[in-house]
Amino acid sequence: MIIIDIMSMYIGQICFFNIILTLEIIVFYRKQVYEKMKRLGIDIGSTTVKVAVIDEQHNILFSDYQRHFAKIQETLSSLLKKAKDQIGEMTFAPTVTGSGGLSISSYLDIPFCQEVVCVSSALQDYAPQTDVAIELGGEDAKIIYFTNGIDQRMNGVCAGGTGSFIDQMASLLQTDAGGLNEYAKDYDTIYPIAARCGVFAKTDIQPLINEGATKPNLAASIFQAVVNQTISGLACGKPIRGNVAFLGGPLHFLTELKEAFIRTLNLKDDEIIAPTHSHLFAAVGAALNAKEEVTTDFEHLLKQFEKKIELQQEVDRLEPLFKSEQEYELHEMLTIELNNLYMKAAYEQVAQLAEIWLRVDSLNDTALWYMLNACHKLKKEDQAMKKYYLYIAEYNKSMGNNYSYSYSDIIHNDLRTSFQ
Question: Which element (helix H / strand E) includes 54?
């Protein structure tokens, strides 16, 4: 009996050690496979799509950067096809990031990673000595502090001082962002320009254009305005010191913009971190964060794009003002015709045409405005008021309102306001 117990215990120990050994072999094997596995990173930004495929040594096998012009699915599909053509079919671990990446992640069933985590991972791999990272995108701007923990500052709802702002300012000088960069190379004067808002910037730039300011000086001033907005609006007084990394498309492609940052921050050469793939950093970081639990290949991903992806909407959208392109074109044609007649003082024709239009669309405020003003010019205010009262009543009825107006209320208030 004792011998049987000893043998049972011995066999049990052997089985236990075999299980442990088997598990260790599995873990080792999976680790070996994962370390040799390729990884795909996708960054869906507000204006661009970036894709990067890396190997086990973190070398970039394929990368590309394209504007999507709001056609995210088509652009991403095109980039994946291009990657497959260049490096061939392969199995990889994918991850997506970026402001537009969450819906794509959900639909393609691949992991999503926060952009700040991706950028931090890429910097840790490429330049672990980074103290501050400045990243400009199409519609966002970020400053990330890495000393004593991560502190990220990002712009809010306004795209002032970002890539979209630069594109808008370039159009004022009848060029593009690249042309603006070439102009800025020959500047000799910097003018103060507001970058917090495109409208304010235009009010600063237009008088300078009228006064004969040169395009090189205007281009350099626009870049300096972006620098000022980023530093004052995001850093908010917190010093930008030490080793500074410049990331994102605008800072990668616009060398003069980067020089404006370096000049303003008074950085030395050894404090400047400017990776050759700085415009792809979030995509590379996404690839670095890819997990072995989820693998796929190009063929499987491309099949997902054969049917249209319904991206989740972040907010409820209002109904369109026009039901069709034809309805919009008719509105434009009638508006132009009414305006031409009104400018010619043909008020009788204006009133007739506007009233015909209102019979078709009783709530059209453009037609109502022309009808009321034409009647005012023709001294037919009483007739206009009766029609106006009917249209207001019709509007409230359609909106479910129970407001009641007296005829005198409309005469003393609404008509006077409409004619001003």
Answer: strand 48-54
